[in-house]
Amino acid sequence: MSDASVAHSGEDRELTDGFHLVIDALKLNGVKTIYNVPGIPITDLGRMAQAAGIRVISFRHEQHAGNAAAIAGYLTKQPGICLTVSAPGFLNGLTALANATTNCFPMILISGSSEREIVDLQQGDYEEMDQLAIAKPLCKAAFRILHAADIGIGIARAIRAAVSGRPGGVYLDLPAKLFSQVMDAEQGAKSLVKVIDAAPAQIPAAASIKRALDVLKSAQRPLVILGKGAAYAQVDASIREFIETSGVPFLQMSMAKGLLPDTHPQSAGAARSTVLKESDVVMLIGARLNWLLSHGKGKTWGDAPKKFIQIDIEPKEMDSNVEIVAPVVGDIGSCVTAFLQGMGTNWPKPPAAWMDMVAAKRDENIAKMAPRLMNNKSPMDFHGALGVLRSVIKDHPDMILVNEGANTLDLARGVIDMYQPRKRLDVGTWGVMGIGMGFSIAAAIETGKPVLAVEGDSAFGFSGMEVETICRYNLPICIVVFNNNGIYRGTDVNTNGTDPATTVFVKDSRYDLMMQAFGGVGVTATSPSELLTAVKAAIESGQPTLINAVIDPSSGTESGRIGNLNPQSVVKKK
Distance between CA 358 and CA 313 in Å, rounded? Predict the structure, then answer.
């Protein structure tokens, strides 16, 4: 039990309470960090967890604490823990919980709550809300613990639900009365559960492996697409061996970038449009045919008939948008191992004509892009600024890149090459803004690596106050805010009145002064050469740094590269 167990009772029995049992259950299951915002009724739980040796990182807003927990889960394969207060705090954390579930990040949102007897009669308790009912549709599982003796089982169930099968978010509801419940310490210790084999291997059927390999072998223009599920699996060496043994060109979705270096000779990242349109067999490994891949149909995929092979741990994912001719259900590590065994040592390479076509298009596009990345304009355009950051990551391949925005995100995905797995963290499946500071903080804490956060000025606004958190914990995070005075562009005009246009921010805002206000380093850069100098200084110092990167306000396009998802009116009112 924890050191602070309640003192002996009159019968000389050692007692414990809900506070200590929660902490002991988390420690028993290897939890080392909690991301939280303190307040009623969980303030003392955070204090006591810290005293018991768990690192407790306090944020300014629950959504960002939740995002931190979610990405901690992705990076470690253990559920990240977010702790919030009741009702409004719970709701703030709920966005992160839903986003974690959508992205298959294992996390547990633990929230204090009002008392059941008052909530159920709607009698108006402090921050009264039926949080369990609200959370259920937005996560993998939701549990409420009413008795101290059930804390061990409740936390064990939450851990297993978060990481087993397809990972995701879990909600754990802890009413305020639970914390002060007292029970015998020895019985309390016996009630705790250490979760064993929380995410067991799911071995694919042998017939499905043979079917998939037969389809792949028959291809004239094969393609492999690696998704963030493949990165999460942490079977990097096996995936690389499979790709190189097969000889097939590969595309890496944004958070899968670095599973193999983007500079690998089989990488088709710079020929994305060509390989999607021209391929005849497409193997998906930990990737879903959602909007990010145009649902596997339409003009993105061209007229060439396609056969899809899909490897996923969730059977219901198969045939979600198009027919999957060779579904393989299992965990990615087991599936890739089975593929390697089935391929043997004499696997035929793809036709030379296909490989030559991919290489020619890739090299052509890289050559076209190179001059745009080398300009030194002042103010900067997106390509000049990203060209600098591309060189920074090349020189520091173990640095973690966090990226969000519209143009800042869409262009960076294609410009900045990654060399190691799980080093690129971004908005993922939902494309939701506001992940930047939470992801950056957790990445620095969980990995001990320096972080480069590349933010659009709009995206930064969602979580910018967490720069105080970064400074408070003195984390080696360098934030680069691409400041073009607005959303998409800073040049829109309101033609009817004196209010600014809806997409325009305060002109020439000084985001760097925010960081200075909390004791960090704040710098303005107006050219690529100034930006490079500032980023290098931040890396060398390891100090919290924010660089206000001045971007031409006219630089940028509506909605980045997904303008087709932003409908515009064609009706003109008289």
Answer: 30
Strand pairing category for 169-175 and 141-144:
parallel
> pLDDT by residue (tens digit) across 93-135?
999 999 999 999 999 999 999 988 888 889 888 888 999 999 9
Please give the structure tokens belonging to residue 144: 């409420």
pLDDT digits (tens, 9 = 90+) for 143-163: 999 999 999 999 999 999 999
Does the CA dihedral 524-527-533-535 come out positive or negative? positive
Structural domains for the chain: 6-191 (3.40.50.970), 206-359 (3.40.50.1220), 374-563 (3.40.50.970)
Q: In 3D, which of 68, 51, 50, 71 has the Cα closest to residue 59?
A: 68
Sign of the CA dihedral running 263, 269, 270, 271 = positive
Angstrom distance (rounded) from CA 549 to CA 482: 5
| Residue 8 predicted with pLDDT over 50 | no
pLDDT bin (cut points 50, 70, 90) of residue 573 is low
Separation between Cα atoms, residue 205 and residue 315, nearest integer Å: 12
| Res. 9: pLDDT tops 70 | no
Beta-carbon contacts of residue 473 (< 8 Å; ≥ 6 apart): 57, 441, 445
